[in-house]
Amino acid sequence: MVTVLSLGGSIVAPDAPDTAFLSEFAASVRTWLSADSSRKLILVIGGGGPARAYQQSFRAVAPDGSNDEADWIGIMATRLNAQLVKAIFSDICPTEVVYDPTQVGVFTGRVMVAAGWKPGFSTDNDAVLLAERFNAGTVVNLSNIAKVYTDDPRKNPEARPIDSIGWADFRAIVGDEWVPGKNVPFDPVASMHAQKNGLRVICAAGRDIPNLLAILDGRDFVGTTIQ
C-alpha cells in the first residue's frame, strides 16, 4: 500500500531546516510504518523559504529574467530539502532522491523521497504523477494552512474554510496558470492532472502530526478534501 505525501517546503524549511519538526515527523512516520509491513510512503518535498529567498533575489537582480530560470532556482531548493529528508530515512530509503517522476523503477524499501523535476509546475504535480505511477488514489498535501479557503483569508475577511470541494470549483479558485513561487493550496497544473485522473487530494496542516496520523489511518481529520 503506497501513500503519497506532498510535504510543503514551508514545513520542512520555513527559513532554515526545522529540526524540531523533522525529528517529530520522522519518529511518527517510522512508528506508523512499523505498524503494518505493507505500508510504503512517498515523500515529495517542496522548496520552502530558501526557494522564495533565492527567487526573490533573482527577480531583484534580473527583473526581466525568465520564469523558467526562477523555476530552476526553486527546483534546486527542493532537491536540497529532499536530500536532507532522504538522509534522515536512509536506512529505509535505499533509492536516490527522485527527480523525474516519469522514470521511476521498482519501489524498494519503505520510503521514497522525491524533489522538483522541471519548470512549469511545482512539486505538487510530481506528487500527482507518482501517485498515478504507484496506484495511490490519494495525495495528502501538507502545508502551513489547515484548510482551503474560498479566498485568501489574509486579504479577505469574508473568506471561509472549506471541508470538501469538487475539482471544478477548486480550480476556479486557484486558476489554471503556474507562476514560480505562486502561493496556492495546490498547484493549478497538478490540479488539472489530478482532476483528469480522478485523484483525491487532502489538504491539511503539516505541523499537526496527530492530525496527519488520523489521515493516514482513515480516521476523522481536520482538512479539505478535493475530489
Give an overview in words.
This protein is α/β, with parallel strands linked by helices. The chain has a single domain (2-226), classed as Carbamate kinase. It has eight helices and nine strands. Helix 6 (167-174) packs antiparallel against helix 7 (188-196). The radius of gyration is 17 Å and the shape is globular. The model has no long low-confidence stretch (mean pLDDT 93).
The H-and-E topology, N to C, reads as EHHEHHEHEEEEHHEHE
Strand content: 15-25%
The largest sheet is: 7 strands, mixed
Count of the separate structural domains: 1
CATH topology-level fold name: Carbamate kinase
Number of helical regions: 8
Please report the first level of CATH classification, the CATH class: Alpha Beta
Task: Chart the SSEs and their pairings.
Layout: E1 2-7, H1 9-12, H2 19-34, E2 40-45, H3 48-61, H4 67-88, E3 111-114, H5 123-133, E4 138-143, E5 148-149, E6 161-162, E7 164-165, H6 167-174, H7 188-196, E8 200-205, H8 209-216, E9 224-226
Parallel strand pairs: 1-2, 1-4, 2-3, 4-8, 7-9
Antiparallel strand pairs: 5-6, 8-9
Helix pairs in contact: 3-4, 5-7, 6-7
